[in-house]
Task: structure prediction
Amino acid sequence: MILIDPPDVPARGRLWSHLASDTSYDELHAFVRSLGIPARGFDRDHYDVPAELYEAAVAAGAVPVRSRELVAALLAAGLRRRKPG
Result:
């Protein structure tokens, strides 16, 4: 399942969401390609998605969840990749 949290993270003059899969990275990469999200948005275990693409991601099938739920789903699936250090 593809999950997306609210666009609440400010960076580079915009608000951002995190888009992740609780199934596989392959599922995640295929989903973002279908939305035209560039590969450079991938950050260890999720994609950073600007607020203006949030509704398109949900319309394409991403399930809105709280940020904590997204992280918990990644952990439960064994897909969480923490920052080094």
The longest strand covers residues 14-21. The mean pLDDT is 95. The chain has one domain: 2-77.
